[in-house]
Amino acid sequence: MGVIHTLGQNYVRDLVFQGAIQGDLYLGLMEEGAVRPVSATLNSGVTEVTGTGYSRILIANNADWLDTIDGRAEHVEKTFNVGSGGWNNVRGWFLINAASGAGAVLFSEIFPAVEQGNQLEGVAIKIKTAIRFKDVTQ
Fold it and tell me: What is the bridge-based pairing of β-strands 87-90 and 130-131?
């Protein structure tokens, strides 16, 4: 189960209700293997993976976002190629509004347990970001 963080809720509110033009987002990998609290921010509840060749991937604010039949917004698949020496503790992904450094963590999701852990050099981690809003009051 993914989480829409407090700053992500504000992002959606500004976009939908205030007509704000939002910039591009960036896909990153996180070390935490449990659902993050909505108040989590980078380095305060979300720890970014580090390692040779790691960097966030651009999620452009354009037609690469597709509407699916079940009401999800889905982005085209993105690939992280694990660099020399491998990456430790890859347990989930997050969307942030900055290419590097500090920014607002908007959404995050953990990987299934069997996919979590250390990633060896040369491994490709493929992620297709999908976001769906669900009414949990019904």
Answer: unpaired
* Residue 49, number of CB atoms within 10 A of its CB: 20
Residue tagged 């500090």 (tokens): 102
pLDDT digit of tens for each residue in the chain (138 aa)? 566 777 777 776 666 445 556 678 899 998 887 777 777 767 777 888 999 999 999 987 766 777 666 666 777 889 999 999 888 888 888 888 889 888 888 888 888 776 777 788 888 888 887 766 655 444
Q: What is the CA radius of gyration of the chain?
A: 15
How many CB atoms within 10 Å of residue 63? 7
- Give the Å distances, CA to CA, from 73 to 8, 61, 68: 14, 12, 6
Please list, residue by residue across 101-125, b when 16 or more beta carbons sit within 10 angstroms of its beta carbon and e when fewer do: eebbbbbbbbbeeeebeebeeeeeb
